[in-house]
Amino acid sequence: MSRGTSGISQVLVLLERIEGTLSGAQAELLTLAERLGDVSVVTGASGEAAGDALSIRGVREVYVGDGEITPPDGALVDLLETAVKESEASVVLGVDVPDAVDALARLSVRLDAGIITSATGIDVDGTVSKPVLVSEHTCVARAGQGPLIATVKPNSVEAITEKGARPELTSLPVKPSPAFEVLETAPLPTSGRPPLTEARVVIAVSRGVDGDLSLVEQLADELGAAIGASRAVTDAGWIDHSAQIGQTGVTVSPQLYISVGISGAIQQKSGMQTSDVIVAINKDEDAPVFEIADYGVVGTSTRCFRR
Amino acid sequence: MSTVRDQAVFDADEDPEHLVLTGMASDDGEASAVPAQVGERLGIPALTRALDLALQAGHLVVTRISGQTSQKLDLPLPAVVSVTDKANDPRYPNFKAIMAAKKKPVTELSLLDVGLTPVEARSKVELVSIQSRPARAVGEVIADDGQGGRRIVEYLAKERLV
Description:
The complex is a heterodimer. By secondary structure, chain A is of the alpha/beta class. Chain A folds into 2 domains: 10-171, 3-Layer(aba) Sandwich (Rossmann fold); 201-306, 3-Layer(aba) Sandwich (Rossmann fold). In chain A, 24% of the residues lie in helices and 26% in strands. Chain A has helices at 24-36, 47-53, 75-87, 98-110, 214-223, 231-235, 266-269, 289-292, 301-306, and strands at 10-15, 38-43, 59-64, 91-95, 116-119, 121-122, 128-132, 137-143, 148-152, 168-171, 181-187, 201-205, 226-229, 256-260, 277-282, 295-298. In chain A, strands 5-9-4-1-2-3-10 form a 7-stranded parallel beta sheet, sandwiched between helices. The longest helix of chain A is centred in the N-terminal third of the chain and has 13 residues, at 24-36. By secondary structure, chain B is an alpha/beta fold. Chain B has 3 helices and 8 strands; from the N terminus they run βαβββββαββα. Chain B has helices at residues 34-42, 95-102, 148-158, and strands spanning 19-22, 46-50, 52-56, 59-66, 69-76, 79-83, 125-132, 140-143. In chain B, the strands form 2 sheets. In chain B, strands 1-6-2 form a 3-stranded parallel beta sheet. Chain B has a 3-stranded antiparallel beta sheet with strand order 3-4-5, with no helix packed on it. In chain B, β4 and β5 form a beta hairpin.
């Protein structure tokens, strides 16, 4: 990893949006960044929102635009690029979500650098670990040229952030300039449960629930869990598309994953097999999910939950 | 580990109506970085992970999720759009269409054709090592004898997970 004159890496963290307080994944990212060097943050959020949320020990400086810049506005990349120059960052990190991947991918082209997505760990020596090939392998890589640009998966480190002084705020001369017109925006349905990718406990359901999620919701609330689902369930519209776990949905890596009636085909498995503990319920004793489950029950979910 | 070195295959100024359509992610790296990188090289916007996509008189209407928000955006061409598997229902070709597709011209481009040297096409990320994840040990599987729910709770308590 290239180092600044001080001998300590300059780490720039992209928080593309800040909604009130930091999300769990954002706090994790700052915790990781602080282990790697001097931390500054660049965000599309307003200076006021950024200053409030980022009054955190270790955050030295915050770069904002001239007005709020909301993804997928390309101005976010201009802001990011300007902040990289200002901060002389040798490490640029984001949370592993599509909007951050997009902005950092464009940045990598501008800086003639590579990008490593879905990292689960970054070492002070600049090496990055990430799961590949439906999480069957772990690879370690580093930047070959240019700064290290990486996105980090939620639940990779434990977030430890301490309240601190308000960071120094630098407004960069980059204005919002969306190439598109916003026709409609709607908040995703909220459940009051933790976000799926950040939850410590995830309960995933299959078609077998037949549209009735009430038992699962009750269990989720008791365990403080998020609810995920197989493709069949999101296709049926019983739960929002954003809850789909698997190769074409989100990947989760919670401490506890409870799989309810999902067979565990490879596309599904790839979205959850790095969970710490997997508990599976399935009525088919040959379901592939039992090959990776720490504890399995051959039976029907309704009967298990009622008790 | 994406390191794209796509050369502009069209000139955005000369082909104002162009749409570059891509899938969501590769099966191996699953980075989803290429669509945005292609957009950057072409100097045009890229909207990724479309859940729905419609083309209306040189304009695209794209529905996608951004953070905790669903957004419907109207975007003039040219543009790059990547789609999720929700964007449509696949239309599978019949035998006649498969045979017809075999006659479609395929143009192969070499690095030289797109003005690249092998050095320029090299990955900008260095692979240090790769190893198989240790296989997950097969855990205990019990038949539900009516006590399945309770057995799960006991297991979770033993593992200090609840």
